[in-house]
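I have been asked to look over a protein record a colleague put together. Thanks in advance; the entry in question is below.
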Amino acid sequence: MNVISNNPDSSERYVRCIQTSKRVRWDIDKDVIRGRNFDTAYKFLPDGLSLADAFTTLSTDEKRFVSQIQGRTYANIFGL
């Protein structure tokens, strides 16, 4: 299925969506983190999402750190 069809209404909706997204300016720290601190003693993402357990050569602490890197990366991607 083609996401953008030849339908003019569909194309116009897509253009409006892109224009609106460019007007929105996220600040990851202000809009998402909001002054909260992450406890680095815990993973930031669940194992099913981070798949850090698939790294068989990493220690438990290193797997937790990978989860934290991924969690922060997801937050920044969504902030963009």
Q: What stands out?
A: The chain has four helices and no strands. Residues 16 and 61 are 45 Å apart (CA to CA). The mean pLDDT is 80.
